[in-house]
From TrEMBL:
Cofactor: pyridoxal 5'-phosphate
Enzyme category, top tier: transferase
Gene Ontology biological process terms in this record: isoleucine biosynthetic process; L-leucine biosynthetic process; L-valine biosynthetic process
Record protein name field: Branched-chain-amino-acid aminotransferase
Any one GO molecular function term: L-valine-2-oxoglutarate transaminase activity
Job description of the protein: Acts on leucine, isoleucine and valine.
Keyword terms, alphabetized: Amino-acid biosynthesis, Aminotransferase, Branched-chain amino acid biosynthesis, Pyridoxal phosphate, Transferase
Native organism: Lutibacter profundi
PROSITE patterns: AA_TRANSFER_CLASS_4 (PS00770)
Sites bearing N6-(pyridoxal phosphate)lysine, chain numbering: K191
Pathway: Amino-acid biosynthesis; L-isoleucine biosynthesis; L-isoleucine from 2-oxobutanoate: step 4/4; Amino-acid biosynthesis; L-leucine biosynthesis; L-leucine from 3-methyl-2-oxobutanoate: step 4/4; Amino-acid biosynthesis; L-valine biosynthesis; L-valine from pyruvate: step 4/4
Keyword RNA-binding set for record: no
Domain of life: Bacteria
């Protein structure tokens, strides 16, 4: 299946101020598109970034049959372009797709579309500290008709957005005791669009109380800590890091699993096990809860300064030599080809 390429007449890159980017707001000149029709993926094309036209009855608008991925490309000082564990994203979008009863997207075509697009839009990947290109692959149900059943037509797309270092500001969180992001047997482990839609309202309520995010707990008892906003979450009690095991309800983050592997190789204590809310609250009272941070592609590591639990507020101490900053520095150095890649995580786009 030949990849058709249609290039833009004139690049928009000169209109973009790369020093003042709003996260995910500007997009590169081109996008990748491929349609699923008559039981197969067909007509892969790279074409100028542009709006897409759908029938108002397209199933994605009504039933939310949509999954996505988030990944980043970096350019090193020698103009080489690097991805971080992209095969993990490729596998995961198909895991997500299966759960939403959508067809899987072929690995070869994923990589051909992705790498060709990155080479065509390589000028948009800026060198230098904190700069990268955020890549958003996604699949949506495009069949027209509002019967409540899986679509017979889909569109796979990749769009790309230049970003600077992600800084969320000071983050304090509310530990969820009413709302849930996901449930047993549900779609929490999938990167399904609807998981995000369902999290916005509880996040708004948290913001209205002065907290930037929600830490999700298990939907049955709200006794176990699971994720922070749309990131996996780590806790440091004394010199041990804790994170919850993945499950139906917890997304298997690539940043999370990379951090676990990195910590093990550094000889830092890391426990992957269910974490009780009461354990964290008690550790905080004793001054033993030294750090909390979210982990995900956009920010890599996002420190959390405090939390609220059933109306009581806890503030974390300021620690020297924080694990969060050590991990962030170490992982980003690997991502940007500034440190040895002993895990084989980097993937060169050439
Ligand atoms: C995407 C996502 C993450 C982080 O995954 P990464 O692969 O590290 O980017 C964590 N939790 C949720 C709910 C997510 O959607």
């Amino acid at each position: 299946m030949a990849l058709h390429i249609e290039k833009i007449a004139k690049s928009r890159i000169s209109e973009v101020d790369f020093n003042n980017l709003q996260f995910g707001h500007e997009f590169t000149d081109h996008m990748f598109e491929c349609d699923f029709e008559d039981g197969e993926w067909q007509n892969p094309v790279i074409k100028p970034y542009q709006p897409i036209l759908f029938d108002p009855s397209a199933k994605v608008f009504h039933y939310g049959q949509a999954v996505f991925e988030g990944m980043k490309a970096y350019k090193d000082d020698d103009d080489k372009i690097w991805l971080f564990r992209p095969e993990q994203n490729q596998e995961r979008i198909n895991i997500s797709a299966e759960r939403l009863d959508m067809p899987s997207f072929p690995k070869d075509l994923f990589f051909e579309g992705l790498t060709t697009l990155l080479k065509i839009d390589s000028e948009w990947i800026q060198k230098g500290e904190g700069n990268s290109l955020y890549i958003r692959p996604f699949i949506i149900a495009t069949e027209h008709g509002i019967s409540a059943s899986a679509s017979n037509r889909y569109k796979f797309m990749i769009i790309c957005s230049p970003v600077q270092a992600y800084y969320a500001g000071e983050v304090r969180v509310v530990i969820a005791d009413k709302y849930s992001r996901s449930a047993n047997g549900g779609v929490g482990y999938a990167k399904a669009a609807g998981n995000y839609a369902g999290s916005f309202y509880p996040a708004r309520l948290a913001r209205e109380k002065g907290f930037q995010q929600v830490v999700w707990t298990d939907s049955c008892t709200h006794e176990y800590l699971e994720e922070a906003g749309v990131m996996n979450v780590f806790f440091r009690i004394n010199n041990t890091l804790l994170t919850a095991p993945t499950s139906d309800r917890i997304l298997d983050g690539i940043t999370r699993k990379s951090i676990i592997q990195f910590l093990e190789s550094e000889g830092i204590d890391i426990e992957v096990r269910p974490i009780k809310v009461t354990e964290i609250v008690e550790a905080a009272r004793k001054g033993e809860l030294l750090e909390m941070f979210g982990a995900g592609t956009a920010a890599v590591v996002s420190p959390i300064l405090g939390f609220s639990h059933q109306g009581e507020n806890f503030e974390l101490p300021k620690v020297e030599n924080s694990y969060a900053s050590f991990i962030k520095k170490s992982i980003t150095a690997i991502q940007q080809n500034k440190a040895e890649d002993k895990f084989g995580w980097r993937y060169e786009v050439k």
